[in-house]
Amino acid sequence: MTIAYLPTPADSADPPYEPWAGEPEVLAEAAAAGRRAAAWIRSLPAPPTPRPVGTWIAGALPDAVEAATASLDPAQCDRMGPDGRLIEGTAGVDAGTTSTLAIVPCVLSDADWLTPDQHLRLLAVASVVTGIARLLADDPGTAILHGLAARMCATLDHATRPDTSGLAPEFEQAL
């Protein structure tokens, strides 16, 4: 079977990108939430003896979180190429950063000095950051206009807030 693609018009350049209403604010909030999450990761305790995974958690992981949230770009969303094939968008996050975030579940078993709560929070951070990028790549309009990206940023902040499990409710609300 032969597949013949229809020719594309010679002047079929992509239309110029027009930002969505509220896009600068959403991107600024995502970058700020990423900086806060990275600061929290850097504040985690170091292993009792130096380990490669400890160095990675203290360095490469927070750098990836910060880089991903600072580089979000809704203009780099899924689209059709000139040949009619789907081009999967990255929302501005490069493959190396995505790869770093994707291996978090694999390396946490080696981070036995961290508490289960810290493991869970690290998983949440990696998941939320990759989720924001995927939301913006799949459907930036919906993610921005309907507050999905903003809610993901709130989830990121929630995952990295201080542990308040031992505080009285009135003190927990103050945080």
The radius of gyration is: 20 Å
Strand content: under 5%
Task: Give the total of beta strands.
Answer: 2
Biggest sheet architecture: 2 strands, antiparallel
H and E order: HHHEEHHHHHH
Count of alpha and pi helical runs: 9
Helices and strands: which structural class?
Answer: mainly alpha
Give helix % range. 55-70%
Q: Flag low-confidence runs.
A: none
Shape: globular
For the biggest β-sheet, the strand order reads 1-2
Calculate the terminal CA-CA distance, rounded to whole Å.
Answer: 64 Å
The averaged pLDDT comes out at: 87
Topology diagram in text:
Elements: H1 23-42, H2 52-58, H3 60-70, E1 79-80, E2 86-87, H4 95-102, H5 104-107, H6 116-138, H7 140-145, H8 148-159, H9 169-174
Antiparallel strand pairs: 1-2
Helix pairs in contact: 1-3, 1-6, 1-8, 3-4, 6-8
Provide key terms for this protein.
175 residues, mainly alpha, 55% helix, two-stranded antiparallel sheet
Overview of this protein structure:
Helix content is 55%, strand content 2%. It is mainly alpha-helical and 175 residues long. A two-stranded antiparallel ribbon has the order 1-2. Helix 1 packs antiparallel against helix 3 and helix 3 packs across helix 4. It starts with 22 loop residues before the first helix and ends with a helix. The model has no long low-confidence stretch (mean pLDDT 87).
